[in-house]
Amino acid sequence: MIADWSDEIVLAATILSWFIIAAGLAQTTIYLLQLVLAGYALSKRPPVARSALLWQRYGEVAPPIALLVPAYNEEVNVVESVHSMLALEYPNFEVIVINDGSKDQTLQRLIEGFKLVKFHRPYEDALAHKPIRGLYSSPMTERLFVIDKENGGKADAQNAGINVCRAPLFCVIDGDSILEPDALMRAAQPFIDDPERTIAVGGTIRIANGSKIEAGRVREVHLPRRLLPLFQVVEYLRAFLMARLAWSSVNTLMLVSGAFGMFRRAEVVAVGGFTKGSMGEDLDLVIKLHRHMRDKKRKYRVQFIPEPVCWTEAPETLSVLARQRTRWQRGALECFFRYRAMLLNPRYGRVGFLGFGHIFIVDVMGPVAEVLGYILIPAFWLLGILSAEYLLAFTSLIFTYGVCVSVCSLILEEAELQRFPRARDLAVLTAAAVIENFGYRQLNNFWRVKGCWQFLRGDQGWGEMTRTGLGAAKK
Amino acid sequence: MWYVWNLSILLSALSLVIMLFLIARRLLRERRDAARAGQRRQLLTALITFTEDRDRQTLKTAILSVPPGVAIEAGFEFVSLLRGEERDDVLVAFNECGLPALVGRQLERGNVAERIHAAEMLAALGSQNATASLLSALDQDRSREVRIAAAIALCDLGSLPLLGVALDKIGVAGQRSRRLIELFRRFPRTRFNELAIHASRVDAVPFIRAAAIDALARAGGFGFAAFFAGLTGDASPEVVAAALRALGLTGHADAPAILTSAMANDDWDVRAAAAESAGRLGLPELAAPLSRLLDDEVWNVRYAAANALRSFGQPGERLLRQIADSEVSRSQRTASLILAEGPAA
Predict the structure, then answer these.
(1) Which residues contact A164 (CB under 8 A, 6 or more apart)?
(2) What residues 389-428 of chain A have any CB closer than 8 A to a CB of chain B?
(3) Rounded to two decimals, what is the model's pTM?
(4) How far apart are CA A354 and CA B296, in angstroms?
(5) Going from the N-terminus, what domains does chain A have, and what CATH number goes with each?
(6) What is the ipTM of this complex?
(7) What is the pLDDT of residue A473?
C-alpha cells in the first residue's frame, strides 16, 4: 500500500512523523528522568510526620514571615480566609491582605470583620505599583494589615505587599486558598537549614474540591466527586510530586507556584518583584531570580518541599478549566520567549539546559507536536502512507507511557507521603490516572494549542475564573 | 519502533502492579493503624494514672504490652509535657523497660527524619547510653541535620565535645544552619569562653561567628562587652553587624565612638546595626550622625536611624520634626514617614 504513494509524500510523512515521535520521546524521557530524581529526593528527605515536633525544633529560630494575600472581589470568603491565616502555627508572622481595587465589598467586609482602622506605616518604595489608597490595621490583632490600592492585577498587588512588608521572607498565597496550619513552619525549614543560599521555596498545592471544610480549615480530606477535578488531582500530583521535586533536587526548579510560595524579600526586590501584566508572573519571577543569582555568580537554592500544603479549588467546568489552561500556556510561552537568551546558554548552566530545555520540550513543542500527532499519524496510517509501527509508537508515547507516568506519581505519593487517607481513594486515583490519558489529556493539549494561538495573536486577557468558594465546597 | 511500544507496555503494567501492591499494603496498614491508635490510648491512660498513683510496676506492664514504636512515640510526647519529679519517675520506668535502647537503635537505623527525632528523644529520656549513641551519631551520621540534632541533644545532656570539635564533625555545609543558633543559645554559661573563642576565629564561617556573638550577647551580659567592642573592627561585615547589635544589648564605654564610626561603614547592614544599637542604648549624642543616615540610600538604614531618633524621646522627635518640616529630600520624607507611623488621626 505504501508503494501507491509517491516517494516525496512518503518521505515528508516519515519526517513529520519522526518529528512528532521524537518530541513525544523527548517529553517521555524527561518525565521518566523526573520520576527517578523525585523518587531519590523523596527517599533522601523523608517528611516529618508531626507538626508539634517542628515547632519544638524550629520555633526558636524561625525567621519572621509576611504572608501576602492579594484579594480581588473576594467578599464571600475573605474574612473566613483571613481568620484561618491568622490562626496559622508559626511564631513570628504577619498577614498583609492587599485589596486590589475590588469592585465588590471585599474591603468593607474586612473593615467590619476585623474592626480595621486607618494606619500609617512607613515603607520602602522599592517596587513600582498602582497607588495605595490606604493602610489599615486591626485593634483585634497586631498581625493583620490591609492595603487598599487601585486595581493593577495580581502582580501589582503582590509588589505593593512586598513594599509594605518588613519581614525578610514573604509568602504569597491566593486569597481563596487554605494553608494547612503547619504550612509556614514546614515551608520555612529550608530557610532555617540553609539560610544563606535558600532564596525561594515552593510547597504543594492540593485540590480541596470534595473535602470537608469548616472555619477555613480542611477538616476531612475526600476526593472530588466530579471527574474533572479528580483528573486534576492526578495532574497536580504529577506536577508537584514529580516535576517540581525532581527539578528542585538538581536546583533547576523553574516554577514556584504563585498560589503558595515563599521568597526572600531582598532578592525579589533586587530583580524588580513580580512582572506586571505577565500571564505567568510566578514562573517569570523564578526565572528572574535564577538569572540574577547566576549573573551575580552567587550560590543559591530554589527549593520545592512536598509537605507544606495549600488547598485550592479546582475548576469544575470545562469552560473555566479551558480558560485557566490557555492562560497557563500563554504564561509559559511568554516567559520562554522573554528569557529565550537563557536557553542552552552555558552562562546559566543547568537552568539554561535542563530548566529551559524542559519548558521548550514540554510547553513550547509538546502540545503542538502532540495535537499534530493526533491528527496526522492515524491519518497517514489510514491512508497507507505509514506503517503500523509509527502508529504504535505514537500510541505508546501518548497512552501507555502516560499511564505509567501518572501511576508512578501516585506510587511516589503513597510510598513516601501517604496523604490520601483511605485505600479506596488510592484505588479511585489509580483508575483516574489511567482514564485521564484517554480524553482529558487530549482536551488539555487542545487548550494548550489554543493558548499558543492566543499568544501568537497577542491576546492578554485573563478570563473570568468562576469559583464556588472553598467554604461552600461540596461535601 | 516496536521496542518503544513493548517498553511502554512493560512499564505501565509494572507501575499498575506496584500500585495494586501499595493499595493492598494500605489496606493492611489501615487495620494496623486502628489497632495502634487503641494501644496508644491505652498507654496514655496508663501514664496519666501513673502520675496519680506512681505504681511503676503497672506502668511497666502497660509499656511492655504495646509495640515499642507506640511506646516510644506516645511516651516521648507525654514526657515532654511533664516536669520535675513526675518526669523523673516516668523516665525511670521508660529506662527500666529499655525504651532508650530502642530509640538508640532508631538513631542508627531510621531514615533521616526518624534519626533526628531519635536524637531529640534520647536527650529527653536522658539514659546512660544516650551520650554514647549521640556521640556516635555526631561522629558518623551521613546527614548533617542529624549531626546537628545530635550536637543539640548532647548540649542538653551536658556532654557536647569541645565546640571546635563538634563544629568540625558537623561539617562546613552544616555551619550555615540556623539550628546552630539554637545550639549556641543552649550553651551552658561555664562554656561561654568556647563561644567567644569561636566568635573571634577569623577562619570560621561568618554566619556562625555572628550566631555565637548573638548567643553571648543574650546570655553572657556585660562581661563580654569589651570582647564585642573588639570585634567591631573585624573584616567580615556580618560579624561587625552582630558585634554592634551585641553592643546595643550590653553597652560599652566606647560605644558612642564605635557606633559613630560604624555609621559610616560601606556595608548597609553594619550601618543599620549601628543605628539600631544607638537607639537601643539611648545615646542622644549620636543624633547628628543618625540624622545624616536619614539620607542613606538604603531604606533599612534610614528606617533604623529614624526609629533610633524616635526612641530618644522628645529631643529625637523634635529633631525629626525639624527635618520633616525642611525642604523636600530623602531625609525629610523619611522623617515625616516615621513621625506619621501609627493609627491615622
Answers:
(1) A96, A121, A123, A132, A135, A145, A147
(2) 389-390, 392-393, 395-397, 400-401, 403-404, 407-408, 410-411, 414-415, 418, 422-423, 426-427
(3) 0.90
(4) 42
(5) 2-42+351-458 (no CATH), 49-347 (3.90.550.10)
(6) 0.87
(7) 42
